[in-house]
Amino acid sequence: MPGVYCDSVYYLQSRGYKLGKSIGEGSYCKVKTATKTYSNGVTKKIACKMIDKRKASNEFVNKFLPRELSIVKNIKHPNIVSVSDIIDSHDYVYLFMDICEKGDLLDYIRNKGALSEAKAKVFFRQIVSAIYYLHTLDISHRDLKCENILLASKDCVKLGDFGFARCCRDAGTQRRILSETFCGSAAYAAPEILKGTPYNPKMYDVWSLGCILFIMLTGAMPFDDSNIQEMLKVQTGKILPFPPKYSISKSAKDLIMHMLEPDITKRATISQISQSNWLKEIPKPEHFHFDFILSQYRSCPKRS
């Protein structure tokens, strides 16, 4: 079906878009660099996520994709990848968005190793701010992992990939909605997800945040997902040894354990995370600008 794609490319060009090289690829989507040329002649470099509906499952096309498009059109936050335009053709959906050329958080940690608490705090505060914003809108991401946290600059991260995101409240009844679909990656999955029971999607996000912070500070995964049953035992038994070679503060460990609490009635909420002792501690300046750190501290959500 190359003709269909070519027709789409010509249409994109008529809208001022020009696609470049591929910078990421999945089973049914590609991410390419792109440019948008405006009527005044100004050209902006952006990214384009191309979703091939022919390769995706019917469930994705009819259930998850409409949710993603509905959500990304209506959210705006400095630490969330902003989608500026959506073009839905017969076979492809094109999402034009911010470009984050410095890679993702997982690659950053693989290249640099475990982060200092000061650096981790700068990144994590921004991630928490983005999730706080989403949860305030009753939206859950449901696929939080280091690969979906993108570096826009040296000290700025943005949350991307809303393919599994959903609203958590019924628009008509205003009642909270529990999820039943297994979403995201097993390594970041909360015990209630692995058990296959209906779950509160916001609390799933919180568990994944705990995994992310553990990875930031240790350079390792908190749980081994090669054996799900054993992983579940470790999770519910609260068996989480911190590597002794890293000097991790008590406040950081306490926050991680509060997020990785198997009992959801005791697990931290995003509001509690944003007000945690660890995040409220202003880090000492290291190799990055203290003014930036202070601005992030001041922008951290406050309890209403």
UniProtKB/TrEMBL annotation:
Residues 17-279 form the Protein kinase domain. One of its GO terms (biological process) is spermatogenesis. SUPFAM superfamilies: Protein kinase-like (PK-like). Keywords: ATP-binding, Developmental protein, Differentiation, Magnesium, Metal-binding, Nucleotide-binding, Phosphoprotein, Spermatogenesis, Ubl conjugation. One of its GO terms (cellular component) is cytoplasm. Its cofactor is Mg(2+). InterPro entries: Kinase-like_dom_sf, Prot_kinase_dom, Ser/Thr_kinase_AS. PROSITE patterns: PROTEIN_KINASE_DOM, PROTEIN_KINASE_ST. Pfam families: Pkinase. GO terms for molecular function: ATP binding; magnesium ion binding; tau-protein kinase activity. PANTHER family: MAP/MICROTUBULE AFFINITY-REGULATING KINASE, TESTIS-SPECIFIC SERINE_THREONINE-PROTEIN KINASE 1. This is Protein kinase domain-containing protein. It comes from Clastoptera arizonana (Arizona spittle bug). The lineage of its organism: Eukaryota, Metazoa, Ecdysozoa, Arthropoda, Hexapoda.
